[in-house]
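[scheduler] slot 2 assigned
[scheduler] job type: sequence-to-structure, two independent chains
[scheduler] chain ordering preserved from manifest
[runner] begin chain α
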Amino acid sequence: MNKFYLTTPLYYVNDKPHLGTAYATITADVLHRYHELLGYDVFFLTGTDEHGQKVQQAAEKRGLTPLQHCDEMVKNFKNTWDELNIGYDIFFRTTAEFHKQAVQKCLQELWDKGDIYASDYEGWYSVAEEIFYTEKDLVDGKSPTGREVVQIKEKNYFFKMSKYQQQLIDHINNNPGFIQPEFRKNEVLGFLRQPLNDLCISRPKSRLSWGIEIPFDKDYVTYVWFDALLNYATGVGYQQPDRKADFDKWWVDTGPMHLLGKDILTTHAVYWPTMLMALGVRLPKVIYAHGWILNRDNAKMSKSFGDVQQPLELKQKLGLDPLRYFLARDIHLGNDAPFSVELVESRINSDLANNLGNLLSRTSQLVGKFFEGKRPAYTKDDEASTALKQAALALGAEVKKDIESMRPSFALEKIMQVLTLANRYLEEKAPWKMAKEDPASAGHVLSTVLEVARIATVLLSPVMPEKTAEILKRLSAPEISWKSATTWGGIQEGAAIEKGDPIFPRLELTKG
């Protein structure tokens, strides 16, 4: 059985989930559910990054210990992911004891082999990003992302990242799919054309106590990125002898696919692989950088402009599965994309209410009116029904190809195209007229349309688990499997076809 190990970034615990983090996590969940449908053995990891200066400062302001603060903030993420129907296998926390011990083992190993050294350091530090910058990195006296920086001089420990620069360049060049999309790979290679500095991997406890203690110097804690990045490996058993089988299965034999925002690509595509090279561990299978969700003016959403969208508020307004559908359908993975209620309303109404919903509604009503609410018998295919049937049966292979190529939006577009064909077929055949003179042929048309809708619904199930389960129940064909998505005849003759209320009511949020 093929295996698929998928990760989101660990989200910084000091922020509440917003639409950007929800987009990344929903996208990962959609990919994870599609791979399950395809028959893969899947493991899906998400979680929170809980150490660092921002957490320590926030906890102090609230009069809590850092761990108490983290425990409270983690509830926001877990609750939001549960509300958004995220089917993760592990919610990882960097404060977990097994992770701390594994990080310390890694640090000790690199220290013992001479890949970590002590040195005085002077540079510009961004508390918001927990990153040091050199003078040449600054833009108008701030970090490249516009954050405030302070000058710091202190002794720290450094990882010999520069030692692995050429090895990383060679790996990227020899493994074309390692960094995706392609233009992100070119960005990383461009970054690596410059000399690579060694990575500061410690913070003195005098300045920051909330972190994993350096095993060879009790006066220091680990830099938050060195700690957090290791989660992808420790989460499946790395540096834990009693979990060797897990680590072999998900990392050694499979290799992870990391899905992450483009703003943290350098840490994942440069820091992380060089750390793994130094530790003698295989590199990830794929590092995939997704784009940003933009506001209606095509700018990044920000708190200062007041246009950050809250996912649970959007769920209340739009419905959960329609929200999931929009994010998977309208954003080509890897690209930036605008978000507005108007765009969501337009997409949901055209694809879900008018296309899939209308098809189900009309067909089930006609079956109720002319065939006592039971699926009619098939008779003989004509040219039109044969073409529609072939399009539906070819759909699974198209969806599989797009999902395995990290193109979920294209897969959904193809499903909608087949549903459009089914609506056109229904219009052309007009079974409501045919039923009076040739009920057998009318029944064949309706059964053909119902079966196309069933196949499309199964193929949409990873995106809209709740709505699709409801549709399949109404069609008396509840099975969701790859076989059911790629074979004809899932609705038995005589099976009850339930009419019910519109499965996707039209949204009218922007009227008035």
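[runner] end chain α
[runner] begin chain β
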Amino acid sequence: MSELQTVSHVGAVPGARLMAQMRARSPQESHRASTPLELLFDLVFVVAIAQAASGLHHAIAEAHALEGLLSYLMVFFAIWWAWMNFTWFASAYDCDDVPYRLAVFVQITGALILAAGVPAMFETHTPNQATVAGYVVMRLVLVAQWLRAAASDPDRRVTAQRYALGVTVLQLAWIGMFWVPGLWVPGFLTLAALELAVPVWAERAAPTTWHPQHISERYGLLTLIVLGESILAATGAIQAALAAGEALSTLVPLIIGGLLIAFSMWWMYFDRPVYDLLTSLRKAIVWGYGHYFVFAAAAAVGAGLAVSVDAAAHHAKIDAVGAGAAVAVPVAVYLLCLWFLHDRPEYRQTRSFGPIAAGLVLLTPSTGHAVPLIGVILATVVAAKLVMRTSPAQMPGGSSKRSC
């Protein structure tokens, strides 16, 4: 959906009905856009994402990258999975009545509880009561939503009941993990895999009526928020360095490189509409699940940029090579994920750009000037794609046409 459609929709949402039937919405609705409640949900979730990225930033700067990465990936899974389940449920069953809105408020509260426990999780490197409690609150509220859907949508009653059952059992399992604290890593991997399996199992009964354009817009909006958080993290690090007396001239290459990275990452994600890729449940699941790495990598880029600023100001315990790797690795992951999820086979002359760019990016830390070089590489890829995709030879019949 376009930003204009989103804005016009926000301005025209009627007051919530007191109580409504939670019937399945049509996947062919025209002008379907994110609601103000969904936008609020995203903005609150960015608090948790910012806490996770901040924890990763400080862990890398203190030379505890592996421990910090483990904590980051675990807490980001909790954030992403709760957001994703809300998003797909809302795409199919958002009735916008009072009970629905109140339930979403409780989910938002759970996100804030989770965010409050993130700093402590980076100290102990294991989930704590706040992170687990916040996650369980978000998930159990969704159980109530699925039970409402089961009561109102007989065609997909079994699907809704499977969701409710699977989510409930797994939340009990998460709580039970506190009695076996020494098994957090294998326990987390097992329960996370089971969480991912619930939608696959549930949707086999009867697929829910998610809206492809709505889903693609929702994912695009969270991408914007995550990229914005990355810019904010880097800006905060630059402000701290300047306040500590660091010369602006030292930071200029990082500032220019960071902006090129952020702008290019945005351009690459929004290079083309993607809703037409969501043509089946199997493709939608692969696309939706793959965004865990897209979102996590985008937020980690902000942490890496902040580490690079710290290293330039001599406030980090790692050298320029390590700081450069903190940016290069998540950028490379981002490029490879977008190449896998978004680049269509018909882009024959540009489809190899993603892997090639990722390989070049991973070479930059050895130079000691990773950030500006990565910025140049990404900007070059964007420019090359624009030139090649708009050339007459790329278009059927020799016509020129924009790709996005």
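[runner] end chain β
[qc] chain β: The first helix runs from residue 3 to 11.
[scheduler] slot 2 released
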